[in-house]
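Lab meeting prep.
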Amino acid sequence: MILYLVRHAEAVELGTPGAASDFDRFLTPNGNAQTLAMAQAFARLKLPVDAVVSSPFVRAYQTATGLLSVWQPDVRPITHDTLAPEKLKPNKLSEFLGEVPGEFVVAVGHMPDLGTYAEWLLGTSAGAVPFAKAAVACIEFRADPAKASGRLRWFVSPEWVM
């Protein structure tokens, strides 16, 4: 399995009109541009994607749908609560991702949980995987994702694709 861990793109600040709660924070114009650049880079490099799983929070879901608008326009992301802020349960998330159809899965989430999950998968120390907004880590597994079973293939920040 190949797992692409994606931190959501740039979002508006809490309290911006229309974003009264953290759940409702939506992408900025720059966040939409980051998402499009990432999707186009995947397409240009012919990186396969079978499924996209997202946090249910608006900014992550918008990032996921923006990616899919380029890759698979008629497909919607799957949402999963363990990708939401402060909901990470690594074993539960890995079990779920292992059941998602396909070998190439994108998971869109939030910091610090996304970094913590990547560190758990790679068996590395805390703080070793600092995701910027719209950054992507590609982690390879011989089977389903599990603790310390992944190998980091590559990690890019949004500056690499914009």
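Slide two material, second protein:
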Amino acid sequence: MKLFLRFVFIALALAAALPQAAQAERLKDLVSFQGVRDNPLIGYGLVVGLDGTGDQTTQTPFTTQSLVNMLGNLGITLNAATTQNMQLKNVAAVMVTAVLPPFSRPGEAIDVTVSSLGNAKSLRGGTLLMAPLKGADGQVYAMAQGNLAVGGAGASANGSKVQVNQLAVGRIPGGALVERAVPAAVTQAGGVMTMELNTLDFDTTQKIVAAVNNDFGMGTAIALDGRTIQLRAPSDPSQVVSFMAQLENIDVRPAQAAAKVIVNARTGSIVMNQMVTLQNCAVAHGNLSVVINTTTAVSQPGAFSNGQTVASKQSSIQLKQDTGALKQVAASATLADVVKALNALGATPADLISILQSMKAAGALRADLEII
């Protein structure tokens, strides 16, 4: 009995040591259908009703011009003298952006984001006047208008200022109504549909083709390349939506991602996936620092000499370089071992970026190094 329990324990330990297989994911999380896409919209408008936090018209003349044009369309005419003397504090010029979802129909409401274009201090409490939103082709696809919701807050007094979050950007939920639909052709000529993987991977593409053909029959899916899959859609148009719904719910185990290290040089962030490995190598890294101290020396003239006090600045520069001992980095087969080996170097994230680049050049880092 004890021998049997010992074998069971060893089997469980070996099972835990084996690499875990990739978890199955729904097809809708891995691919997108060609023709089903969002469309960005952009527009220009005016926000009114601000509490003295609008644009300074002397520095943003386009705000005044936009207001004059809008009033002219409403039948109000202003002469040149009145326009030049306008001091607007409750109006701000803004850019309005939105995303038109696929299959949107006229009358549908979409969210819009309103961003200050001039030097307005805050858009809090403002109302966006009717602003047309255009697509890349210059056609108007939606009209935006409504009260802004600004998440920031701030106050200022006697030269002191405090602010939380952003005050120059607001959002209007459901603030635009779709005026024109964008044609979306999911099925192409000959009853053919196209799926595109979110990430290029030949192995995952082949697994998707096998899973689709297993559920719908051989020849339903054909891989055109490592990212594009061609589908044979149902001949009856009324069954296309049902066909797409069944496709999206197919479970596929994607292939293991390629070994990759992502380095953000601006923030010093380093992210690596579980496929990263290291080969035996030796690393020496030293820090170079420059310290500059500046002092002011004052020379006083003698008594009754009619001289002037002279102040001069003296600087001392020190150059310091820390010695970096040559340290051996052992080969690492798992991500935990890689992290342990890199931490043993005792380098800062900024230094680690240089070390990883050198390891990649020497062939010791078995991963793609991508700097963003």
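Talking points for slide two:
Confidence is low (pLDDT under 50) at residues 1-20.
The helical segments are 2-17, 61-73, 80-84, 202-216, 240-248, 335-343, 349-362.
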